Amino acid sequence: MILPVGAPSFREALRQGVEVFxxxxxxxxxxxxxxxxxxxxxxAPNLPSNDAAIEVILGAIEKAGFKAGTDxxxxxDVASSEFHRNGCYELASEGRSFTSDEFVxxxxxxxxxxxxxxxxxxxxxDDWSGWKLLTERLGRKSPTRRRRPVRHKYGNPATRxxxxxxxxxxxxxxxxxxxx
Length: 180
Hints:
This protein is α+β, with helices and mostly antiparallel strands. The protein has helices at residues 10-30, 50-63, 100-113, 128-141, 143-151, 174-177; strands at residues 2-3, 73-77, 84-85, 88-91, 96-98, 116-120. A hairpin with a 2-residue loop joins strand 3 and strand 4. Helix 1 (10-30) packs across helix 2. The longest helix is centred in the N-terminal third of the chain and has 21 residues, at 10-30. The two termini are 23 Å apart. 21% of the residues are buried. Residues 142-180 are annotated as: Disordered.
């Protein structure tokens, strides 16, 4: 996903997102790739690798006239629990399999090579040693970057998401807590 965090307002961020979306559609069409939109509004072209997907998005950001890593950053929703089997991360479309430590290194490598600001569901929900290693590896690059989210209660550098589970906000009413 794209994160237009360099925009001065929500209105501008929305405009940038729309422009990149349309630029991405043009890039995909020019390459003869599918532009059908999925349930969550994103494209799902048949690309050879995850790196290729990132590169296509970066190309669309540039085509739309923005600078990746300044105007617009990337966010990954990896959904790792969906392809974590028997202690390994199976990227069937790429014919590759990773141990937890190897998959952490892949995510860290992407974070070093690409302007990635957010990684959601980077590891399987019960891969506690992997989560610890990922947080250590991403936080080691910039201790300030690791401390700021915790200090401001934003979360941590490696976001974990557990499906439909929701934390209760004491300011919500009982009916608000269970609303979908």
